[in-house]
Amino acid sequence: MDSCDVLIVGAGPAGSSCAWGLRHTGLNTVILDKRVFPRDKVCGGWITPAVLEELQIFPEEYGPGRVFQPITGFRTSSMGGPEILTDYGRPISYGIRRIEFDDYLLRRSGARLIQGTPLKTIKPSPRGWVVNDQIEARLVVGAGGHFCPVAHALGAGARKEVAVAAQEAEFEMNAQQIAGCAIRGEVPELYFCADMKGYGWCFRKGNFLNIGLGRLDQHGLPEHVAKFVAFLKKSRRISFDLSSPLLGHAYLIYRETKRKLVDDGVMLIGDAAGLAYSQSGEGIRTAVESGLLAAQTIVAADGVYSAEKLEKYRGLLQSQYGKSGEDWAMNVGRRLSPRLRQSFARFFLASGWFSRHIVLDRWFLHRSEPALTNPMAAPHASVGRDGRAVIPSQV
Length: 395
Description:
Elements: E1 2-9, H1 13-21, E2 29-33, E3 46-47, H2 49-54, H3 59-62, E4 69-71, E5 73-78, E6 84-87, E7 93-95, H4 98-107, E8 112-115, E9 122-125, E10 128-131, E11 135-142, H5 149-153, E12 164-172, H6 175-179, E13 189-192, E14 198-205, E15 208-215, H7 221-234, E16 247-251, E17 262-263, E18 266-268, H8 284-301, H9 307-310, H10 312-321, H11 328-335, H12 338-349, H13 352-364, E19 382-383, E20 389-390
Parallel strand pairs: 1-2, 1-11, 2-8, 5-13, 11-18
Antiparallel strand pairs: 3-7, 4-7, 5-6, 9-10, 10-11, 12-15, 12-16, 13-14, 14-15, 17-18, 19-20
């Protein structure tokens, strides 16, 4: 029977980041995934400089041969309302394709890979756990997204939880579509639903276009998406039909999750733990950070993976994201009637100050939150205020 110290189930950014955080610890780490990488993953796909710093990625290293779209501003509005263009004048995020980004993180993780193999069974053993009657692990880390089988084994009922549901499409535009697309790569566009229960987005990454819409209220999602695409055509943002089918997915946001994060010999990270940001639903940064925080907890446990030892991980998450994941604007909005919420949204989203400092800086970019410090990381590059890689001694 195969054996390891840490078995990570799921090879997305959370799982790869956790393995990367463990790469110099001497722990025998294995990543198991049902897919073979590189695999397609439809996602709005943008990362902030904090993610690059936390994972010690040089833009000059990652960019060549991959989609790496500098983002210098955003266009925001309540759908059909006045549009606000916020220009930062320098890169404050980067558009990526998950098929490339996830594969890159996985290859550099330092873990042994078992691909094309789903988790079918997980059983307790004297040493920890036996997975698929083939792999014995002292610790199992669930990183398999919203429907993660490890989360299910811990009692999560994904189909009974209140989740954000989304539909989106990503495709490479042909010459005619490029000519008929008014969306600029450096300026993604965000359009909030009138009831503020969701928003639509348009992200252009080079010649690739990603269009989608997500809502906390799942009822009538296809109709909302269809209206959004019609709105984009009517407003002449695009002049063509989408050439890729809209794919659905779901995720939990931090303030709503009730999942059990740790137990004896088990942890959940990323979307498996329900850690997407409450306001934007963005989950790449939280996936990366939860993976790194899990790695810190695993090292500190010193081979004793009891629930009591692993509980430190929950405290690290609360220190990073707080207990509620909300702010004053979200709290006010949740207390208003639907009609007042709609008026509130239209009024404030028409304000350049609110759009920049609340919607973008706080809800989407989290600019006030410094990059997570990884004490196990070797000195490498970080990202300066101008979006360029710098050596730590120069920061």
